[in-house]
TrEMBL record:
Annotated signal sequence range: none
One Pfam family here: DUF4142
Family matches, as InterPro entries: DUF4142, Ferritin-like
PANTHER family per UniProt: BLR2558 PROTEIN
DUF4142 domain boundaries: 60-192
Protein's organism: Pedobacter rhodius
Record's protein name: DUF4142 domain-containing protein
Top-level taxon in the UniProt lineage: Bacteria
């Protein structure tokens, strides 16, 4: 009887110890996982920054449209560097690649700060367009690319003029600065388009 009692007491002690350590484990796991952190656009954002006012709907829409447009400019420029015939078109494409890569990076940082998720890839219809451009070369490509750049940049100027009006200071500052660059691109694209006629 004494042996049975000792066996039960020992068994109870082991069970109690196991439960204790399981509780410690689960509370440790909970603590490390429940920390108020999120990933926005691949950037680690801590909960302490959540006091920052987020953008209004117009601002969020602006960032999403600008991100998609920026990705398109970079992808099209990469193709132009390979498929274009004209040195002017290639030089323009290199400028697009440099300026829009920089602007896209700044946009991602701003979006992360404002907790807005922006696209990382092209919408399906733009991807179809990019794939079609890959099959063009020479003068045909040059004309298509420059016509596209004129049209796209005119639309982008209008978009960024709206961004300039946003009440968020950070967004307004970035949109204003970037608009100056985009207006320069528009003028250059029109100049190249005229020279091709």
């Amino acid at each position: 009887m004494k042996k049975i009692f000792l066996g039960l007491a020992f068994s109870a002690a082991i069970t109690f110890q196991a439960c204790q350590s399981a509780d410690k484990k689960s509370s440790t796991t909970k603590d490390s996982v429940s920390g108020d952190t999120t990933m926005v656009n691949g950037v680690h954002v801590t909960g302490s920054e959540s006091t920052e006012a987020s953008l209004d709907e117009e601002g969020a829409t602006f960032l999403k449209k600008a991100a998609a447009g920026g990705i398109m400019e970079v992808e099209a420029a990469k193709i132009a560097l390979t498929n274009a015939k004209s040195a002017d078109v290639k030089n323009f494409a290199q400028q697009m690649l440099t300026d829009h890569t920089k602007a896209n990076k700044e946009l991602k940082e701003l979006a992360a700060k404002k907790k807005i998720i922006t696209p990382d890839a092209l919408p399906a219809e733009d991807q179809i367009h990019v794939d079609a451009m890959k099959k063009m070369t020479g003068t045909e490509f040059d004309k298509h690319y420059i016509a596209m750049m004129v049209t796209d940049h005119e639309k982008t100027v209008k978009l960024f003029e709206q961004g300039k009006q946003n009440k968020d200071t950070d967004l307004k500052t970035w949109a204003t600065k970037t608009l100056n660059v985009i207006e320069g691109h528009t003028a250059k694209a029109k100049e190249i388009a005229l020279a091709m006629k």
